[in-house]
Please model this.
Amino acid sequence: MGGGGGARVALQRMDAQDGSVLRARKARQERVGGGSQEDLSDVASERLVDGGGACGYDEREQEGCCDDATPKSPGRAHDLWRKVKKQYELVEYHVLPEYLRDNEYILRHYRSDWPLKETLLSIFTIHNETLNIWTHLIGFLLFLALTIYTMREVPKETVLPERLASMVHVPNRGDLHQLHVELVTCFPALANVPSFLQEHLPQIVAKCIPDSPTISPNSTQQCFMQTMKDQLGKELNMMVAGATRVPFLVFMVGAMFCLLSSSFCHLLSCHSSGLTYWLWRLDYAGIAVMIATSFFPPVYYVFLCQPIWRHFYLTAISLIGVLTVTISMVPVFQSAKYRPMRAVAFAAMGMSGIIPGAHKIIFFHHEPVCVQTLWYEIGMGMFYLIGVVIYVTRIPERWKPGFFDIAGHSHQLFHILVIAGAYTHYRAGLIYMNWRDVHGCIPGGI
Model:
């Protein structure tokens, strides 16, 4: 009898627990919207995921997971993120809408049709575009810092003596006295000039200081040396100010535009097909702008004294850039089918730099700066070329689909190589700019 009574008490306790479970389930059903069959399935699934059953043996169950009271929230931000994560799950490739299907070797962790607010917040979460966003965003911040540093940098202290050493010898007072002696020897009539004029002749001539070794032999200007003095003033001004930074700044702005537009594209492209349509075109425009502006420092500084060639090359690359952007705007080239064609078009645009590069080597090979910058330009070309090959072949994710979904897939490697190539070009641009700080544009020289 005692054993039977104990059994009845145990059964009553189990019935009470079952009643509590049923009441908790009923309350949850009412909270999720009325208790439809679909909602009941969701509740059941969520129950299984959260606790593994009705008050099974688990530490969370022992702490009161089956109580009617809702556990306290650890924080408002955490609740918001749990809500976003629950409502906007990452999905797999096979359920993506057509406009988001670009790489079939990346299988999971896609964002699809997310609201704008959640899309923006996803910059701080993990998905298959996280590193695509941050690689170029960090690259943008790097180039912004380099731009500020370079624009604030004045010519080095060694520039002025080097620049003076590169100039033609300027006559000193002893040279002017010797010139006076030679004039008297050649023109004996000068001996009859009053002595006070003879004494002041060197000072009079000193007012006309030569500047350039090259003066037209047919010049009929009123004062041969006055013309040289005027030119010297211009040369000294350039020594103080240094070579213009505008071509260098054009390249840096182009690089930053490319990196920032790419970062925004990867962040926001999951929002809607309409927005994605324009974002990808902005991305293509950024690539074309970066390639075109990368021509400005080498072409401008190398052909500083040959304005015809300088204007020709800069105009040509600008037109090619506009044409490339225009072609990229055609909707048919947006699809993944034309990925290789897009890559070839941008690669061909970059390879067009071989022409002014060859021109530089053939005509200015005697300048040390030509060899120094050549190695940087070869390195830049290799970074870009390897990046394009990886982008087109989709290596390494094609070797092991799904393994590189979060980190290590081809587009992330392409981004890193683009930054490496741009930084290499930045280093070459510094050499060109510092070289012109020293030498300027001397007629008859490079």
